[in-house]
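TA notes, week 10

Several of you asked for a full example with nothing omitted. So below is the full record: structure tokens for the whole chain, then the designed sequence directly under it. When grading your own attempts, check the secondary structure regions first.
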């Protein structure tokens, strides 16, 4: 383990504060991660030294900004082992990335075609496909989750009947933001390919938590957000296989994505410019590249081991609480734990835990259909990242015991 790893908390200025008179315990990383000094500095440096618009300028600052922006694209390609930086499209985040695929690839769908998703998708990987189905007349189907607490993960046996030749796109999450289970993405991509469907991976909850190799996984499209991997908000990525991207129509149109325009029409540049109309989030891309450097510096395998071990420890310690219902797999899980108590609403838990300096999240986590299927209105979620510690799990458990006692539930 690198010496850098041991000092990781010192890298995050925001962690060193008190909330309600208690040391901040930030366990809301699945919503957004905190930013290390290196990322904050990269943003400040860009705005103080290099700020200018990209691609259209011939002066020094514009060339510097362009180099930094295109350098960021190459850095992110390396981070996910893409074959070519042109496969990296900068977007606002996972939500926009999936919307681009759903509209652009969705434009070639027709009645009789099937879009396959799963019952555990975040609204961001569900509603855009509902819209694509409505617009095209295609049918949307779902791979079921197994078990009363979704502890069985996806029903992979059902794929045999669901992945028919009519399926044109199979969209699934790598890690569920509510259940914490890790889906076998390489297997799912291979199954999609064998059925003649294009795969779309929602990597929002996995990208910053371990190694990710688009070519080893065999993905056609991958969507993720910078802000969940120590990068800035407002920047994200759509990875698309080059051969596929160049066959797709643009989604938004305007400046920067055309080769020539006349009053009658316009001709598109190839990817990635085709999908990046207008002035991009230059600083965001640069900050995201700094986040890639930071995470690679810690070691992606080490991050996965750290986060997954904390989640396993939390699962074990929380299991001892009276009346707790823990969701998702009992075994291997990613860095989050989601739970519910019959007697206490998730919003009450989050509000009371805030008194103890804890940042948790409670609610449906943009998984309303899944919640309904599991007979829940919401869960409380604790999600872990590189700076969290085993001691913080003890603070969580002690706080929950206090809350349960207050509500007469223990
Ligand atoms: N997909 C998954 C699996 C997510 O967890 C999220 C955000 C998104 C997509 C959307 O990402 P965005 O950056 O475009 O908003 N999830 C959460 C969450 O669980 N709590 O707050 C945001």
């Amino acid at each position: 383990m690198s010496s850098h790893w041991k000092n990781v908390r010192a890298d995050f200025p925001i962690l060193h504060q008190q909330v309600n008179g208690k040391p901040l315990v930030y366990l809301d990383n699945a919503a957004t991660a905190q930013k290390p000094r290196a990322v904050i500095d990269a943003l400040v440096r860009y705005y103080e030294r290099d700020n200018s618009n990209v691609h259209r300028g011939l002066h020094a600052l514009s060339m510097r900004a362009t180099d930094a922006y295109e350098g960021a694209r190459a850095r992110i390609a390396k981070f996910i082992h893409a074959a070519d930086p042109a496969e990296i499209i900068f977007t606002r985040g996972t939500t926009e990335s999936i919307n681009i695929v759903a509209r652009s690839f969705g434009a070639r769908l027709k009645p009789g075609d099937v879009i396959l998703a799963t019952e555990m998708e975040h609204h961001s990987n569900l509603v855009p496909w509902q819209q694509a189905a409505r617009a095209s007349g295609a049918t949307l189907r779902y791979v079921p989750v197994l078990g009363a607490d979704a502890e069985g993960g996806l029903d992979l046996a059902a794929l045999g009947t669901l992945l028919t030749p009519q399926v044109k796109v199979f969209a699934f999450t790598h890690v569920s933001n509510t259940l914490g289970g890790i889906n076998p993405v390489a297997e799912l991509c291979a199954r999609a390919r064998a059925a003649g469907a294009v795969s779309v991976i929602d990597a929002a909850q996995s990208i910053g938590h371990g190694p990710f190799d688009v070519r080893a996984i065999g993905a056609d499209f991958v969507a993720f957000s910078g802000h969940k991997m120590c990068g800035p908000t407002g920047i994200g990525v759509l990875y698309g296989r080059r051969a596929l991207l160049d066959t797709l129509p643009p989604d938004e149109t305007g400046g920067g994505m055309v080769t020539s325009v006349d009053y009658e029409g316009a001709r598109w540049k190839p990817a990635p410019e085709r999908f990046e109309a207008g002035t991009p989030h230059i600083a965001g891309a640069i900050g995201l590249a700094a986040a890639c450097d930071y995470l690679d510096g810690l070691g992606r395998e080490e991050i996965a081991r750290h986060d997954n071990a904390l989640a396993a420890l939390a699962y074990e310690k929380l299991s001892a609480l009276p009346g707790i219902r823990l969701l998702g797999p009992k075994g291997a899980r990613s860095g989050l734990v989601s739970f519910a108590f019959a007697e206490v609403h998730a919003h009450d838990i989050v509000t009371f835990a805030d008194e103890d300096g804890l940042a948790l999240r409670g609610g449906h986590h943009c998984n309303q259909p899944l919640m309904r299927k599991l007979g829940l209105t919401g869960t409380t979620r604790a999600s872990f990242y590189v700076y969290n510690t085993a001691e913080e799990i003890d603070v969580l458990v002690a706080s929950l015991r206090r809350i349960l006692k207050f509500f007469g539930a223990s």
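Residues 30-31, 93-95, 122, 124-125, 173, 177, 202, 204-205, 225, 361, 365 surround 7TS (CB under 6 Å). Use that as a sanity check on your answer.
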